[in-house]
């Protein structure tokens, strides 16, 4: 397969909720090791597209390609097999468990989806394996030192890192993050961008973000959605100067 084949590509994605067309004929692709941002005003369809890419929404129309090969849109139960992992907005940690246990619970889910066989997961040997993978995932977000901390003692920025560690346990080739910088201050946003850039050495990353500035520095390519359609795409500079984008953001006061 040629090296310029996109890791993930979709064409003609249309999603309706009753009479409302949330996405209309959307084209989108992520290259290997690329960090791609999906931005747009509130209600633009960002979460709907994210959900379609991770199996939470089934499109009415559209084509899905992984590594250039057409396949059905993902379902939540085959995401791991497809090499896709995601974090979701507002999914919390169990406060009375340790950070490591929280990441391991993410891995238990892998046992259920077959990546780690359910039979093996019942014996101690496999628990050790899950523990080891979870520790590695924490190291990759520079949170190895937090492993034994109770989750409810973490700072907010640290909970965001742990949520990413949970997604990394399945060793994805495509990582999808819904508003990873949401609620973070300037310094923590820079830190998060650095972390994402480092992760992209091993995988492709898709970021969904409401605020354009947050993703400008970390993404090599941006797609801008408005009213369910891609109104602009390209480098941060291209998108920032695009009159259609300026109008869309001014129109909502964002
Ligand atoms: N489950 C749903 N049922 C009905 N309408 C929905 C649903 N999810 C999203 N929508 C509508 O679809 C449009 C796009 O929403 P969404 O994808 O959440 O936008 P964004 O994430 O960009 O803010 C909005 O008009 C929203 O109200
Ligand atoms: Mg959203």
Sheet bearing the most strands, described? 6 strands, mixed
Radius of gyration: 18 Å
Heterogens: adenosine-5'-diphosphate, magnesium ion
Say how many strands there are.
10
Just name the CATH architecture of the largest domain.
3-Layer(aba) Sandwich
What is the helix fraction of residues, given as a range?
25-40%
Overall 3D form: globular
InterPro entries: AAA+_ATPase (IPR003593), ABC_AA/LPS_Transport (IPR051120), ABC_transporter-like_ATP-bd (IPR003439), BCA_ABC_TP_C (IPR032823), P-loop_NTPase (IPR027417)
Pfam families: ABC_tran, BCA_ABC_TP_C
GO cellular component, one term: plasma membrane
Domain ABC transporter: 8-252
What does this protein look like?
- Residues 8-252 form the ABC transporter domain.
- Keywords: ATP-binding, Nucleotide-binding, Transport.
- One of its GO terms (molecular function) is ATP binding.
- The structure is a single chain.
- It contains 10 helices and 10 strands.
- Helix 3 crosses helix 5, helix 3 runs parallel beside helix 6 and helix 5 (124-140) crosses helix 6 (156-168).
- The strands form 2 sheets. It has a 6-stranded mixed β-sheet, sandwiched between helices. Strands 2-1-4-5 form a 4-stranded antiparallel β-sheet, with no helix packed on it.
- The model has no long low-confidence stretch (mean pLDDT 88).
- It has 2 domains: 1-83 and 174-254, Rossmann fold, CATH 3.40.50.300; 90-171, P-loop containing nucleotide triphosphate hydrolases (Rossmann fold).
- The chain is of the alpha/beta class and 254 residues long.
- Bound molecules: adenosine-5'-diphosphate (ADP) and magnesium ion.
